[in-house]
Design a protein that fits this description.
The chain has 16 helices and 26 strands. It has 500 residues and is of the alpha/beta class. It has two domains: 253 residues, Rossmann fold (3-Layer(aba) Sandwich); 202 residues, Class I glutamine amidotransferase (GATase) domain (Rossmann fold), CATH 3.40.50.880. It has a six-stranded parallel beta sheet, sandwiched between helices. A six-stranded mixed beta sheet has the order 15-13-16-18-26-25. Strands 19, 20, 21, 22, 23 and 24 form a six-stranded mixed beta sheet that branches. Helix 6 packs parallel to helix 8. It is globular and about 70 Å long.
Length: 500
């Protein structure tokens, strides 16, 4: 335990995207908590389809919610004041301080005009955090040396300069070119920017560290700053991922002796962390696919959330996956949709006001007797609820645009009852259901309900894990892993010493 003196903020910036900034920041949120501090995460601008609802019912990037959990504090929009949710290759929904303010073309968004307002908003959010927490653990975005965007950058070194933060440059050695990426990134910085970078952290190292000792010395001599750690690659620690690029490694076929659950791989898939808990269930084999033959082998098909429901529904109909899902259900597969997936399972998705695009109506898969109307108002809230007919309290959160209602004469019942008394979701029979609630599968009793018709197919004994306890164990494992391979006294020295 330390005396908890005030530390300067620390920023983990990267030599590129997907170098592990988010995971390293998560590790340090837990390390500082373990050492007696009160840390909080901060990323000025995040681009992600994975998001989360704060206790106030506002929206932030899922990565910062995970980091807040590791830090042991409630998540808040000040931890991620600006969230970009891609809707196409060129446009994103802009969420500012937890609320959508419209869709922006990438070219328009990154122009100088209008940046002052956004810069003030993210700086104000940081300032509020800085008054409450010690230290603020900041995360950069992409590469810290995107020189063509220097004047409009809100998240990397301009933010570090505003915060008075010490920057640790994170590089991924597993992808190769680590010397060029580190040295080149630093060389492209302006003098006042480079002074903020106080250390280098090499991430995802494989092999015998002794073979890289000379490399560490070379980097330190070239760059004039210390290498504060070389963190080995790991595959036995499970932290919720920020980027759906990881799903490519989970596209596996069905497995004997398990309940095979296929998550339909959508182009605009969002909140895929809904399914992480199932990966840890010993009775389950989870895989992601849109292949019609693989869908046919699934015992349970999960249709996930989407940032562009109509576009993804159109693609499912075009590529044959929609017909494959309907066919699998007729042959005994359970089908469940969450959020956008729930909307797709209905009779129609209607968009008369062109919230998502030009198409005003598209038939759904017809497996649930519901119709969805797209609306411009976004619902974001945390919810407590009960599965219909049960009295076990469950928890989750909603993030969606659109309202869904039963068609006249529907032979179905609501899936859930909210604590407020409202009904939610649809249960057509034990083989097809839909819900707007993200995190619904984090509740063990709901997982048991979902798996019950297929338990005879699994050879593995077991029950749903306590996912909260599991996540706590993983944060501690991650912190222990990083502690072993970084020079923590040096990092504390960096965050404590007077600046030149």
């Amino acid at each position: 335990m330390t005396d908890c003196k005030k530390l300067r903020p620390i920023m983990f910036a990267g030599t590129g995207s997907d170098v592990g900034k988010s995971i390293i920041a998560t590790a340090f949120c837990r390390i500082f908590l373990q050492d007696g501090y009160r840390p909080a995460p901060f990323k000025a601008q995040n681009m992600a389809l994975n998001s989360f609802a704060t206790p106030e019912g506002l929206e932030i990037g899922r990565a910062q919610a995970v980091q807040a959990e590791a830090a042991g504090v409630p998540c808040h929009t000040d931890m991620n004041p600006l969230l970009l949710k891609p809707q196409s290759d060129h446009t994103s929904q802009v969420v500012l301080n937890g609320r959508p303010i419209g869709n922006r073309d990438a070219y328009d968004y990154f122009r100088k005009e209008g940046r002052a307002e956004l810069r003030k908003a993210v700086c104000d959010a940081f300032d509020r955090l800085q008054q409450q927490y010690n230290p603020v653990v900041m995360e950069g975005a992409g590469c810290l040396a995107e020189i063509n965007l220097r004047e409009t950058d809100l998240v990397n070194l301009p933010m570090a300069i505003h915060a008075g933060a010490d920057v640790i440059l994170v590089a991924d050695i597993d992808r190769g070119g680590v010397f060029a990426s580190v040295y080149g990134s630093l060389l492209l910085l302006q003098p006042e920017e480079r002074k903020r970078v106080k250390g280098i952290l090499i991430n995802k190292f494989r092999g015998d560290f002794r073979l890289f000792e000379s490399g560490v010395k070379m980097l330190e001599e070239l760059c004039g700053i210390p290498v504060v750690g070389v963190v080995p690659y790991y595959n036995d620690i499970h932290i919720e991922e920020e980027d759906s690029v990881v799903l490519a490694t989970k596209a596996m076929q069905a497995m004997r002796g398990k309940i095979n659950i296929a998550v339909v791989l959508l182009r605009h898939l969002s909140n895929f962390t809904d399914f992480d808990v199932l990966e840890q269930d010993p009775r389950v084999h989870l895989f992601y696919t849109n292949n019609v033959d693989e869908l046919a082998k699934a015992d349970i098909i999960l249709l996930p959330g989407s940032k562009s429901t109509i576009a993804d529904l159109y693609e499912l109909r075009r590529n044959g996956a929609a017909a494959a899902i309907v066919r699998a259900h007729r042959q005994g597969a359970t089908v469940m949709g969450i959020c956008g997936g729930y909307q797709m399972l209905g009779m129609q998705v209607r968009d008369p006001h062109h919230v998502e695009g030009e198409l005003e109506l598209l038939p759904g898969l017809g497996l649930l007797p519901v119709v969805t109307d797209m609306t411009s108002e976004k619902i974001t809230r945390q919810v407590r609820f009960f599965r219909t007919g049960e009295e076990i309290p469950l928890e989750g959160y909603e993030i969606h645009m659109g309202t869904t209602h039963f068609v006249e004469g529907a032979h179905a019942k609501p899936l859930n009852r909210l604590e407020s008394g409202e009904t939610e979701g649809c249960l057509a029979d034990n083989g097809c259901m839909g819900s707007y609630i993200h995190g619904i599968l984090d509740n063990p009793s709901f997982v048991n309900f979902l798996l019950a018709p297929h338990l005879h197919k699994t050879e593995a004994a077991g029950a749903p894990i306590d996912y909260r306890q599991f996540k706590e164990e993983q944060y501690n494992k991650l912190a222990d892993h990083v502690r072993k391979h970084v020079n923590l006294p040096l990092i504390y020295q960096i965050l404590s010493q007077a600046h030149d």
